[in-house]
Fold this protein.
Amino acid sequence: MVKVSVIIPAYNSEQYLRQCLDSVVKQTLEEIEIICIDDGSTDATYHIFREYEEKYNNIQIYTQENQGVSYARNRGIMLATGEYIAFMDADDYYYDGDTLKCLYETAKKENASICGGSLIYDWQGVMRKPQDEAMYFERASRRFFRDEAIVYGFTRFIYLKELLHKEKIAFPSVGYFEDPYFLILAMIKAEEYYVIDKAVYVYRVGTHDREVSYAEAVKVLNVMRDMFWEARNHGICKLQLVLGNQIIRSNIQYIIPYYDLNNREIVDLWDEVGRSIIPEIREQMTDQGRLFTSQGVQRYIQQCEKEYFKLRDVVTNSQNIIIYGAGRVGRAIVKSMEKDWGKKPFAITVTKLGENQECINDVEVTDISSWSAYKKEAVFVVAVLRKNETEEIRQILENMGVEEIYVPDCVKLMGYLRRKKVLKGSIIEDLVVKPS
């Protein structure tokens, strides 16, 4: 009998796929099947799958034209024969070889439809414990979703296949933001979940980030609205509060570029999201509650614009700029420096170099240890989105004795850079041709 089916969708994932597959095939729980779905890759993804299929008899490979991760995962759910289902992203990996054994045995012992553990971040090869309590469990316990709602980290859980089939739980057909909705639907139907006091899943930071098009932003807002209504219809006030404080904070940057009073689709959808929130819950939200009004969004856009001009002043008034961060934010800042202000960074640095050393706009990415001599000669600009990473970088720089550290609000900065791109018309075709 297959105890756990591991579903791995992949699209052009050759860089990290072997580490992902190694972490699965080395699991001590022997009765597992590994369902690999190549979603129309154009790189070596399929060949790597085949390489592992030849070595291991519990790997099944399926191919399809590029239809998105939701379609691939839903196909995997229908193909799975295991008692429980696990989902793995092709650029992540399991924390150790006992992950699935611990989750499965605990789920059986506790009669749990959903069982999970803690998530660990892999940030450029450095392992980090999340600051968010919902991502890291200090003690094993049974939890009721009504009281302890969570919306992120669906891959650190295993799900009873019977639950998913019986309740027809599937991923929505969007290319982004599909996993929180799936997790919420599963948790609402299960009502409770069990957690173990063990790290189980490693999430590789930076590889999941990408641009969101106008059509995808529309789909995101539809899913966001549906999540708030699911919480409201089931009377789960805590879930609405969590959604307001977490989902909005991390996804507002994708909505801001397209918020245009002359183009009502995004504006009207945003208003629908706001109307789905119980007024008393909105009042309990932190600053996020203010965003659910037109005035609040307009103020936020102004704050994003100010963040951009503050960065401009730092860059133009400094001789040597060292960008700390080579991910999405770092790349965007480097591009703006050159395109908008005619300057190149003196250096681009990271805490630890990955396997493949690279360049950004002809500037080599280097290890932070290379720049200790410039602690008084340069302004270090911290270019990361997540607050815990920002604080760690600030601490590293302070320990180095760096005198000038600039920490922009990168969420607002990225929102403005995307909005600026839209306003210049570089993706105006997405605004003219509305999605069906």
